[in-house]
Amino acid sequence: MEICAPFAGIVHFSVKAGQRVEVGDTLASVEAVKLEAPLLAPVPGVVSALSAEDFSDVAGGDVLLTIDAAPQEGQ
Predict the structure, then answer these.
(1) What is d(CA 67, CA 31) in angstroms, rounded to the nearest whole number?
(2) Which of 8, 26, 31, 41 satisfies CB 3.0 to 4.6 Å to 21 for a cystine?
(3) Could you read off the pLDDT of 57-67 as tens digits, one per residue?
(4) Left (φ > 0), alpha (ψ -120 to 50) or beta: where does 45 sit?
């Protein structure tokens, strides 16, 4: 699952590649002007890749990281 920047700004990651995350964990934040938007994990899984450098400029819609979702119960 790809996690994208909600708007243009500077990204700061709270996770690293290979890290396990649960629903609601903070993955990163994007800051622009005095607005900061946290990006929360929508699914449990493992962060498979970061697609930008920490504290780099990103455009709205840029893929920031990828999560390999954990299998759901009963699947």
Answers:
(1) 21
(2) 41
(3) 999 999 999 99
(4) left
